[in-house]
Design goal:
heterodimer; A: mainly alpha; MetI-like fold; 2 domains; 74% helix; B: 351 residues; alpha/beta; D-Maltodextrin-Binding Protein, domain 2; 11-stranded mixed β-sheet; 13 helices; globular
Chain lengths: 532, 351
């Protein structure tokens, strides 16, 4: 990119007037990261195009695809609405009322995000085989993902100027009318964004539906994989799923974009007044109790129950040895660490490029990386299996391939935090340090890392937790003989050996909850770091 | 006197000597290393479509007996067969062990299987193994109908599997068309009644049935009473019974008789890959699978519930005795390789 001056505008600090030349090494490293994300998408497309048009039409317009669309869309409709109502109500009571114990509820309402949906699913399925199909899927997905609405809405409520509401009340609007006509419109970006995230997660969820025997695109792609390895049928279904996900992603970006305009005039704000609930405290508290019981108490309690049942042959005929448990834990942890390191290594140049330089190419690279959000694990894994078995033999069935898959899947997650951390570490300070005579390495060590370090650590930790709880890609890509905690829970639960699955499920939940807790304590923001 | 030229000679010699020594070391290393490797215990790679827990027990016992370790790649039978077909000569697999014969037939058609040692092949009745001796039957299962007596009486159950496509069964039957156990059934109907009849049967089933991903889903649905009856292989019910406890069990199983298609027997089989790098150890694993201790362990254990195929080993008492079953007269060769069944299922809209 040539050096040229761009006109200074009002919202841009004068430091960035000159468009600097991008170091080719940095650009290349960023291109590798973006290219890796693009690879499975391109391969899926390529595979799908190998099908003749006639076959493609026959495969895409068969009744099954219609059923899957119906199942998926009705579930998404129901889940997003349920999550919106529960998430908004919880956020409002926590942020705007003097509900006793609201600080505790504020944390507990975010915790379900740290428990993988398929663990919740395992718990419910093991309680009663009756909780399957649509009702079970709705229950599990809503309780796993409603925090995706709760967190942004709570943040929006905190940031809202109470003056507008007070004016509305002074002008004679009732409490409910005020909420509906003043608060809700202001919440719209946060609420819609959260709902779209719920929809996106519901589209990509595999493990929970697999265990609940609810058929969606992800489970059907897996079924096709099981009946034909990597045939064109699976690729075509994957393509439909990716299109649905990308539609959600685009909608989410649009909603987020609009949210910025909504927050133009701010000024100084007072915190909003807290509402006294009076007698209504009792039903609201009961509601919170029920919510916590359903989303946390029952899943975690069930795991503990099965843990105590371990060894009783009448309930579970499958033995769990300490060696198996140790090996699985070690596999999960090592893959998590390797994956976090590689993901961070890929996110760093991209984040640095995006925060320090400008240009159309850079925007394209960054957006490409975010595309990974719209690619479910099953799609990425299927593409990588098929790509390596056909064209990249040395990587086929290797641990390296699984780590690459993790890096692709969680690059957006890491990029968000890396970007935020690098923005905080202002470039001006680096330049001053250079001007005062520090070398490049010393700048990194003494200026950049102390400022951006915690944020980078948070990014690595989040990726680590996500990998430890990842099921789908691991199921398809784990090297021969490697069984992570997630894969063990899956194997034992699909063969109704609930007690045998319990130790693995307990360990995984413990690692996830502990890491999240440390993350929240160390970096603040509560479990909100997971909302990205 | 040393001339300028003579200075170089010893140095050149040194270099040559050094190179020769290096070549010797490398060559010796090359000779020794494989020998050392051969002395190391062999690790076999098993591609398995069998249940993980069953395989875990088997390989632990095999390692105790032979000192040979087995690493396992798990998957559904058809997935594994297609995977090996794609891997071709590069497949890391030494042994393939699946729950249904068609997957082995497919691999045999693609000329990827090595012959089973004749002495081992002889231990199992010939009708349960490949005619060309390229794969070996290990265990067998019976196809049955699970039913919930609270929703349907035993007298109302059909004499034939093909009756389930009739309109009176609408909403009362559960199937798992993407389970590897369902494909041989489709083929069996095709063999006995012809392709158009098989397609019509599937379309009838499609209109009547609740569809699940696997047999575990079907038997769970029957047990909880969401559907009156479901087509499964017998051991899914037996396993649910062990997990739930016999007293709490609400569903029962019904055996098709008089040679009806519904009573089809599926064979779990094993084969050595032609591309195996450890053929001797692989053959030893096959011999172990059909040895008396292994077959007795499988028959007794409360995790597998398949019939052992080694003559003289009694099956789990929970199962109906093998000699009392009345399966249809369909050979493994007639069951073929599943490819046609998958196409028929897609045509009927079930896949």
């Amino acid at each position: 990119m040539t050096t040229r001056t761009v006109p200074a505008s009002l919202d841009r600090p004068p430091v960035v007037i000159v468009r600097r030349r991008v170091p080719p090494g940095l650009l290349a490293a960023s291109a590798v990261a973006a290219g890796l994300v693009f690879l499975p998408l391109a391969w899926t497309l390529l595979q799908a195009f190998e099908v003749t048009l006639k076959d493609a039409v026959a495969l895409l317009f068969r009744p099954l695809v219609g059923e899957l669309l119906f199942n998926t869309l009705t579930l998404i409709g129901a889940t997003t609405c349920a999550a919106a109502v529960i998430g908004t109500a919880a956020a409002w009571f926590v942020e705007r009322t003097r509900l006793p114990g609201r600080r505790v509820f504020a944390v507990l309402a975010a915790v379900p995000l740290a428990i993988p949906a398929f663990i919740t699913s395992y718990a419910w399925v093991s309680i009663s085989a009756g909780l399957q199909d649509f009702a079970g899927a709705l229950l599990v997905v809503t309780s796993a993902y409603y925090p995706l609405v709760y967190l942004p809405v709570a943040a929006a409520l905190r940031g809202m100027d109470p003056a507008l509401e007070e004016t509305a009340r002074a002008l004679g609007e009732s409490g409910w009318g005020c909420f509906r006509r003043v608060v809700l419109p202001q919440l719209k970006p946060a609420l819609l964004g959260g709902m779209l995230l719920v929809a996106l997660n519901t589209l990509s969820e595999f493990g929970a539906f697999g265990l609940l025997r609810f058929r969606t695109f992800t489970t059907e792609i897996y079924a096709e994989y099981r009946t034909g390895f990597n045939g064109p049928e699976a690729s075509l279904l994957a393509l439909v799923l990716v299109l649905l996900c990308l539609a959600c992603l685009v909608a989410e970006v649009m909603v987020r974009g609009r949210a910025r305009y909504g927050r133009l005039a701010r000024g100084t704000r007072r915190p909003a007044a807290f509402l006294d609930l009076g007698w209504a405290r009792v039903p609201v508290l009961a509601g919170f109790g029920l919510l916590i019981l359903v989303t946390l108490g029952i899943p975690l309690g069930t795991i503990l129950y099965w843990l105590t049942q371990h060894g009783s042959a009448a309930i579970s005929p499958v033995a769990v040895t300490a060696a198996q448990l140790f090996n699985s834990t070690l596999s999960s942890l090592l893959l998590g660490l390797a994956g976090a390191a590689v993901t961070l290594a890929l996110a760093l140049p991209l984040g640095f490029l995006a925060t320090r330089y400008e240009g159309r190419l850079i925007t394209v690279l960054e957006r490409t990386a975010y595309l990974a959000q719209g690619m479910p694990g099953i799609v990425v894994a299927l593409a990588l299996v098929s790509l390596t078995v056909q064209a990249l033999r040395p990587l086929y069935q290797s641990a390296a391939l699984l780590v690459i898959a993790y890096a692709i899947l969680f690059l957006p997650l890491a990029l968000v935090s890396v970007r935020a951390a690098l923005v905080q570490a202002q470039r001006g300070l680096e330049e001053s340090a250079r001007a005062l005579g520090l070398g490049w390495m010393a700048v990194v060590r003494r200026v950049l890392l102390p400022m951006a370090g915690p944020g980078l650590g948070a990014a690595a930790a989040m990726v680590f937790v996500s990998i430890v709880t990842e099921l789908t890609a691991t199921l398809l890509l784990a090297p021969i003989g490697t069984r992570t905690l997630a894969v063990q829970v899956w194997a034992d639960t699909s063969t109704v050996a609930f007690a045998a699955a319990a130790p693995y499920a307990a360990l995984m939940a413990a690692i996830s909850l502990l890491s999240t807790w440390i993350l929240a304590r160390r970096f603040g923001g509560g479990a909100g770091v997971f909302a990205s | 006197m040393l001339s300028r030229g003579s200075w170089y000679r010893p140095r050149r010699f040194d270099r040559v000597a050094a190179l020769a020594a290096l070549a010797l070391i490398v060559g010796a290393g090359g000779l020794i290393a494989p020998a050392a490797r051969a002395a190391e215990p062999v690790t076999l790679t098993l591609y398995s479509g069998q249940h993980m827990q069953t395989v875990d027990r088997l390989i632990a016992a095999f390692a105790r007996e032979s000192g040979i370790k087995v690493r396992v790649h798990e998957g559904e039978g058809p997935e594994i067969a297609n995977q090996i077909a794609q891997e071709g000569a590069y497949s890391p697999a030494d042994v393939v062990f699946v729950e249904n014969s068609p997957e082995l037939v497919l691999l045999d058609e693609k000329k990827l299987l090595a012959p089973v040692a004749p002495a081992v092949l002889k231990r199992i009745p010939a009708r349960f193994s490949a005619q060309d001796g390229h794969w070996l039957g290990v265990l067998a299962r019976e196809n049955v109908l699970a039913f919930n007596p609270a929703l349907i009486g035993e007298s109302a159950l059909p004499a034939s599997l093909t009756d389930l496509a009739r309109p009176q069964w609408k909403g009362k039957i559960a199937i798992a068309p993407s389970d590897a156990d369902f494909l041989p059934l489709v083929r069996a109907v095709e063999v006995s009644a012809g392709k158009p009849a098989a397609l019509a049967w599937l379309k009838g089933l499609k209109a009547n049935a609740q569809v699940f991903d696997d047999d575990e889903g079907v038997v769970a649905a029957v047990e909880r009473g969401s559907v009156a009856a479901g087509i499964i292989n017998n051991y899914y019910w037996a396993r649910l019974r062990t997990e739930t406890g016999a007293a709490k069990m609400r569903s029962r199983i019904y055996h098709f008789s008089h040679g009806d298609i519904g009573g089809l027997i599926n064979v779990s089989g094993v084969a050595v890959l032609k591309s195996s790098k450890h053929p001797a150890a692989a053959q030893r694993f096959l011999a172990f699978l059909v040895s008396r201790p292994a077959q007795e362990m499988l028959a007794r254990g409360e995790i597998d519930f398949e019939y052992p195929l080694l003559p003289g080993v009694p099956a789990n008492p929970l199962l109906k005795p093998f000699d009392q079953l009345q399966p249809p007269a369909i050979t493994m060769a007639e069951l073929g390789d599943d490819q046609a069944s998958a196409t028929l299922l897609r045509e009927a809209g079930l896949l």
